[in-house]
């Protein structure tokens, strides 16, 4: 878990002009390439149908999965996220609070019985893990090499940025995706993929993040797992076609929900978290409209959470709930 502290996060407005022009140039190159290809095909085939037009894209990522065994969550779907402990759910439970569509829970600490029970209760399960940071307390933590690790994460001194270009890191993440598939998660929520936006100590760039998301997305697709993009607003245009949803923290606080509206416009949900204590205004209305600082948040699946992402949650209709947490057993 890594709610970004003020000053972190993926902020287009903080990107240098040079980078902005780089992105614009790449986008332009892709459009020209796509037009050229389209013309070429058009000339060769005469009038063909345009059903493979998937909108804006960038070179590295495959198009939206044609694999219909991959879950495609709907815009506006209701959800809950609980990370510091596994949730406590009796295998014989007949309900869970809150009664929402989707649970985003830790991949490692939640037992198979919890995932199976959530499915029996009609819920979809998103399995959270950190894909871009080293955490010392995971079962596979010993497999990382010293050379894989960069600077500590701001606010999370135990965690270190990982080298997204490292084959060793990618192999470990492949295994994590295989674990998610084996546990029958419907989707994965790989965190900390925005090293480019932080002092990572490894020289990681946006392109490294795009390539890493490309790697994760194709592996996820091969395992019939949906995949979300955590924060990382600056790379949305490059990865959107291969990603099924966004998990966003604090776009109202940072006034950049508009960037994430790209997802809703592509009929993909934005699972949106705000931490009221961070902005010292705990009025639901501040986070649940789509004007003012929340401009662009129309259609977002908003939850108001404590900073540690425990069982407490509040929704835009004002209702609150607390999901029971259990002990970490592994
Ligand atoms: C998404 O669509 C809305 C409504 O048409 C528009 O205002 C907004 O600018 C779009 N977002 C992006 C990132 O293009």
Q: What would the keywords be for this entry?
A:
binds 2-acetamido-2-deoxy-beta-D-glucopyranose, 8 helices, 330 residues, globular, three-stranded antiparallel sheet, TIM Barrel, alpha/beta, 18% strand, ten-stranded mixed sheet, 13 strands
Number of strands: 13
* Poorly predicted residue ranges: 1-16, 36-58
Distance between the termini: 17 Å
Bound molecules: 2-acetamido-2-deoxy-beta-D-glucopyranose
Number of domains: 1
Total helical elements: 8
Biggest β-sheet: count, sense, barrel?
A: 10 strands, mixed
The helix content is 25-40%
**Strand percent estimate:** 15-25%
Biggest sheet, strands in spatial order?
A: 1-2-3-7-8-9-10-11-12-13
- What Rg do the Cα atoms give? 20 Å
General form: globular
What is the level-2 CATH architecture name?
Alpha-Beta Barrel
User: What is the name of the CATH class?
Assistant: Alpha Beta
Decide which structural class fits the backbone: alpha/beta
Q: Overall pLDDT, averaged?
A: 85
Write down the CATH topology. TIM Barrel
Relevant CATH superfamily: Aldolase class I
The secondary-structure element order is HEEHEEEEHEHEHEHEHHEEE
Domain Glycoside-hydrolase family GH114 TIM-barrel: 78-312
GO molecular function: alpha-galactosidase activity
Transmembrane segments: 21-43
EC number: 3.2.1.22
């Amino acid at each position: 878990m890594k709610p970004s502290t003020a000053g972190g996060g993926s902020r287009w407005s903080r990107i240098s002009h040079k980078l902005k022009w780089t992105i614009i140039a790449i986008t332009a190159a892709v459009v020209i390439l796509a037009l050229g290809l389209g013309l070429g095909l058009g000339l060769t085939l005469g009038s063909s149908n345009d059903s493979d037009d998937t909108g804006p894209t960038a070179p590295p990522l495959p198009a939206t999965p044609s694999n219909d065994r991959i879950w495609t969550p709907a815009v506006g779907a209701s959800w809950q996220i609980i990370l510091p402990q596994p949730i406590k759910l009796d295998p014989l439970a007949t309900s869970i609070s809150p009664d929402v569509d989707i649970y985003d829970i830790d991949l490692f600490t939640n037992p198979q019985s919890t995932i199976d029970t959530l499915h029996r209760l009609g819920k979809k399960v998103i399995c959270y893990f950190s894909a871009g940071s080293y955490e010392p307390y995971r079962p596979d933590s010993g497999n990382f090499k010293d050379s894989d690790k960069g600077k500590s994460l701001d606010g999370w001194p135990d965690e270190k940025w990982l080298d997204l270009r490292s084959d060793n890191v990618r192999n470990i993440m492949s295994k994590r995706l295989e674990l998610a598939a084996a546990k029958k998660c419907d989707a994965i929520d790989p965190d900390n993929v925005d090293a480019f936006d932080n002092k990572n100590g490894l020289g990681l760039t946006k392109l490294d993040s795009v390539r890493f998301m490309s790697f994760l997305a194709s592996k996820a697709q091969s395992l019939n797992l949906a995949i979300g993009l955590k924060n990382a607003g600056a790379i949305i245009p490059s990865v959107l076609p291969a990603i099924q949803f966004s998990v966003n923290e604090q776009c109202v606080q940072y006034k950049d929900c508009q960037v994430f509206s790209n997802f809703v416009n592509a009929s993909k949900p934005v699972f949106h978290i705000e931490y009221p204590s961070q902005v010292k205004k705990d009025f639901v209305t501040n986070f649940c409209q789509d004007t003012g600082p929340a401009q662009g948040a129309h259609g977002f699946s908003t939850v108001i959470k404590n900073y540690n992402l425990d069982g407490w949650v509040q929704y835009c209709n004002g209702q609150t709930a607390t999901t029971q947490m259990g002990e970490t057993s592994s």
